[in-house]
Amino acid sequence: MLVIIGPTGVGKSALSNLIGVKFNGEIVNADSSQVYRGMDIGTAKPSQAEINSFPHHLFDIVDPDERFDVHMFNIKAKLVIDQINSRKSIPIVVGGTGQYIWSIVESWDINKSGSDPEVRSRIEREYMAEGLEPLVSELLRKDPKNSVHVDLKNPRRVIRALERVELGFDATSPRSKVIDLSPGTFIAGLSLGREELYKRVDQRINSMIHSGWLREVLMLRSSGYKKTLRSMGSIGYRELHGFLEKEFSWQECVKNIRSRTHRLIRTQENWFKKDDPRIHWFDLSKMNFEEIAASVYNQYKLTPIK
Which residues contact 265 (CB under 8 A, 6 or more apart)? Predict the structure, then answer.
C-alpha cells in the first residue's frame, strides 16, 4: 500500500494521479469531505476526466445528510485495498484527513475508539437546539485537562470529544506513540514552505469561487441540505451558507474561508509530523512531481511486505 499525505493544496492529487497512471495504481480516497455527493468544487474532488483515466474509490459514496465517520471509512477502505491487491494493482491511499490515514496504516481497532451513534446523535440534537456554547462548557467541566487539545470553535470536534468523554474515554486521543505500519506500507509526504502554501491555497480558493462554488452550495440548499449538517461544516460550505443567510458580507466570507484553510494546514502538521521516521518527505521546492513520482515508486517497490 502506497500512502500519499501532506497539507491541503500541496499537490497530493497531482502526484497520486501521476503515479497511478504510470505504475498501474488505483486511488483510495482518504479525504473526509470528498466522500459526499454533490460537494465537488469546494472539496477539490478529482475531475471526471481524472476519475475515468484509472480507477478511483471512495469518492461520492454518501449523500450530505448521511452519517460517515472514521469507523465506516476504515471498514470500506480495508475492503477496497484488499480488492486492489487481489488485482495486482497498487493501492494509493491519498488524503489529508489524519484520522482516516492513520486508522488504515496503523491498523486501528475501531471498536476501541470511543464511538456510539446513539450518544453522538443525542449530543448533535443538543447542539442544534442550544448551540455550541453549552456543549463547550460541558466539555471543559467534564474533562478540563484534555479539552485544551480540542478546537472549541469546531462543532464537529466538540461533539466528538463529548461523545468520547461520555463513553469513558479522554476527550482526545494523543498520538505520541509511534506504531509500526501495516506490512508493505510506504508513506510519502509532500511538503512546501508555509507561506508559499498559503499563497497556493488562497489562489485555489479564488479558482473554486470562479468555478461556481457558491452555485454548488445553492444547489445543495435547494436539495434540502441544511447548514447544520455535519457535511456542511466542511471548510467553505459553512461560510457560504452563512453568506447566503446574511450572517456576514462576501468579503468576510472569503476571509473566513482562507483563515480556516490556513488553520487546517497547521492542524495537519500535527497529524503528519516532519520528525515521524515512518514518513518519507519530499520537498516540492526542490523536486518536481515527475522526479518525486519516480522516487516514491522505486522506494515503495523496496518496501518489505512482511
Answer: 7, 8, 9, 194, 197, 198, 201
Number of neighbouring beta carbons within 10 Å of residue 173: 14
Tell me the pLDDT tens digit for each residue of 175-194: 545 578 888 899 999 999 99
Tallying the residues shown for the chain, one arrives at 306
The DSSP H or E segment spanning 158 is helix 155-166
pTM: 0.82
Assigned C-alpha cell, 263: 488553520
Residue 201 CB contacts under 8 Å (≥ 6 apart), including other chains: 8, 9, 258, 261, 262, 265
Give the CATH fold of the 2-112+175-301 domain.
Rossmann fold (3.40.50)
Domain boundaries, the chain: 2-112+175-301, 117-166
Short-list 128, 247, 107, CA closest to 181: 107
